[in-house]
Amino acid sequence: MTNPAKDAQAGQAAAPAQQDTQHLEVIPLGGMGEIGKNITAYRYGDEIMVVDGGLAFPDAHQMGVDLIIPRIDYLQQNAGLIKGWILTHGHEDHIGGLPYILPRLPRVPVYGAGLTLGLVREKLAEFGIKEGDTDLREVQLTDKVRIGKHFGVEFIRMTHSIPDNAGYILTTPVGRIVHTGDFKLDEEPSDGKLSDLGKIEQAGKDGVLLLISDSTNAERPGRTASEADVARNLEDLISKCKGRVFMTTFASNVHRIQNVINIAHRQGRRVVMEGRSMLKYAQVAQSLGYMDLPEPLLTNEEVGDLQDQQILYVCTGSQGQPMAVLGRLAFGNHAKIALRRGDSVILSSNPIPGNEDAVNLVINRLYEIGVDVYYPPTYRVHASGHGSQEELATVLNLARPKFFLPWHGEPRHQINHARLAQTLPRPPKRTLIAKNGDVVRLGADEFKVTGTVPAGGVYVDGLGVGDIGDDVLLDRANMSQEGILIMTAVLHPTPHVEIVSRGFVRANRDLDGQIRKIALDAVEGGMREKKRLEDVRDDMYGAVRRFVRKVTGRNPVLIPLIVD
């Protein structure tokens, strides 16, 4: 990932005091000021407790990057102080980075609920990490655990878009912290298990020093729609579809997939599940008892003589990924299935920020094929897993915190959450808008940022982890926008220059000839002056760069080569 030695001096200089027993440090290493790669460290004296270890997906400008995981320099530099780990739930932005993170740190207890750890085990196995190399400990969401000498953790069940989602109450020597985790206050959850607000209310009565709360939907008034509302809307829609139905959603949304399976059974349709991640989540959820199948799932080969109105596909591709099932169907690249008029496609999801263009491209292609397409907000077939303003206010009113740290959101979400808190009858005494890497110092009467530690993202590109940086991405962006021009100067027996370009301009003999002449003049001039080859190469680069910019107005990536 990163080289701890390289940043050790800076990291240690920024780290909090080694033995401060009057204050606790809250150190977000990911998930603060952004949505994704959530990981937070709590430090008291010589002990550290860590929460989650997620990933983020790249933006459109981060070309070629597969995933982004958080920098853990601070944890590596203080590895001997880590006493335990808490996992809130099984979404990628909270557990997806663990296969990269856990092998680089000491083996410590990792606590999580059944489905969460089931998904973690699956991920670790994919990376060839043996279960014996980790210490995964399953908990119920009514449990309390002790981490080190200083951290007491009481789990809180909170409704979300995945089962076994948890917040927690953290008891520390300086006071009580309530962390909501991701949540919405769904009054009709699919599994019938409501958020345990009684624990938050009791903590508020006992005294909450700090509330850390989900800010994702802090801009949205009212309440977030219930999963039961989505199920009713999906059933109404599916009942009217005449041909095959293709439904896509997040593979981790086990509740919604279960509801769709039940709807299909009531509507006389057999379910075919397509897509690797969809099958993986379903298998883990089934094996652990979180998914119940009224009928066995079919493979596409088992569809046989079923009529179109008897088939419902649940597939991957809700985010417009070109290699996911829906993307391949939209562009006619699926090896076994082809969409046709009369089919219906339901996108039961919203695009993650940054994926809007990819999703719109798929939707437009589906329209061109002639299938019926249903997606939000026109059709109410999706509900967020995060609470809106009324729900956020409810948690604030129950917890009655002295201090408040809006979390899990971009700056606009955090700031709107802070403003919401100030409108309540009993607002927090102080609210901080923190960033990744901030060391937030917390005491009975103190709540402020006192320093920073290394933070940010590490790019995963193919099999490489951390071996590309922003400079490489800048080169990729330049090549995508301006093209590339390779100049090879051969010095012997007679100096001449070869030009190869890609994405620059269409074949243009006149321009190529002019570039060759400019490059050759620079090379021959350097040879006459008996310059070093490196200097000859630089002269050729500079002369061609100036010429190309002057005559084309473009700035391609130039690669000069000298062959002696």
Could you characterize what this model shows?
- By secondary structure, the chain is of the alpha/beta class.
- The chain is 32% helix and 23% strand.
- It has 16 helices and 26 strands.
- α7 packs parallel to α8 (254-266).
- The longest helix is centred in the C-terminal third of the chain and has 20 residues, at 509-528.
- It is globular.
Characteristic key phrases:
3 domains, alpha/beta, Rossmann fold, eight-stranded mixed sheet, 32% helix, Metallo-beta-lactamase, Chain A, 564 residues, disordered N terminus, Ubiquitin-like (UB roll), globular, 26 strands
Report the sheet with the most strands, covering strand number, pairing sense and barrel closure.
8 strands, mixed
CATH class of the largest domain: Alpha Beta
Q: Could you say what the CATH topology of the largest domain is called? A: Metallo-beta-lactamase, Chain A
- Gap between N and C termini, in Å? 38 Å
**Which sequence of strands runs across the widest sheet?**
7-6-5-3-2-1-20-21
Unreliably modeled segments: 1-18
Domain module tally? 3
Mean pLDDT: 89
Class of secondary structure makeup: alpha/beta
Which radius of gyration do the C-alpha atoms yield?
Answer: 28 Å
Q: Beta-strand level of the residues, as a percent range?
A: 15-25%
How many H/I helices?
A: 16
Helix amount: 25-40%
Number of strands: 26
Instruction: Please name the fourth-level CATH homologous superfamily of the largest domain.
Output: Ribonuclease Z/Hydroxyacylglutathione hydrolase-like
The CATH architecture name of the largest domain reads 4-Layer Sandwich
Shape: globular
Domain Metallo-beta-lactamase: 36-234
Cofactor: Ca(2+); Zn(2+)
Function: An RNase that has 5'-3' exonuclease and possibly endonuclease activity. Involved in maturation of rRNA and in some organisms also mRNA maturation and/or decay.
Family: Belongs to the metallo-beta-lactamase superfamily. RNA-metabolizing metallo-beta-lactamase-like family. Bacterial RNase J subfamily.
